Every structure is written in C-alpha cells, then in structure tokens.
Amino acid sequence: MIGYIIPIMLTIVIMPFTIKELGNDNFGKLSFIWMLVGYLSFLDMGIGRALTHFISNKINTLESDHVLKMF
After folding, report:
1. What DSSP assignment string belongs to 5-51?
2. Cα separations (Å) of 24 from 14, 18, 31, 36, 51?
3. Each residue of 32-66: pLDDT tens digit?
4. Distance between CA atoms of 33 and 47, rounded to whole angstroms?
5. Mean pLDDT for the stretch of residues 23-34
6. 67 closest CA partner among 5, 50, 57, 36
7. Which class for 47: exposed (0-12), middle (13-18), buried (19 or more C-beta within 10 A)?
8. pLDDT of 71
C-alpha cells in the first residue's frame, strides 16, 4: 500500500508547482504525452516479462552461451 500511497501524495503536492512552472499549454502537452504512454503500454503484451523468463531459464539450464549468441 505504501508503494501506491507515497507517489499519489507526492503528486498531489508537486502537481500545482509543475503546472505553474510549465504553464497551461506545456502542461497540456505533457499530459497528452502521459496519456499516450499509458494507452500504448498495453501493446507490450508481456514481451519484456517473457524475454526475462526465457533468458533466466536458459541461464539456469547452463545454456547461457546460446543467450549470448542472441545478443
């Protein structure tokens, strides 16, 4: 719960200062970018997690030379 509460509290405190410093137009642009990143994050579809699992399995089964050849 602390991992969720602390960022929310910091955002509530810092956001007015951010809006004041950036101005309404630039803050609107920043909000739009945040929105795009949030909406497009579903395209990840677990690829990063699957790749981490694949590599850790190869390292665990002593096939790390195969992993090194991939990269």
Report:
1. HHHHHHHHHHHHHHHHHHHHHHHHHHHHHHHHHHHHGGGGTTHHHHH
2. 15, 10, 10, 18, 40
3. 999 998 888 877 778 888 888 888 887 777 665 66
4. 22
5. 93
6. 57
7. exposed
8. 58
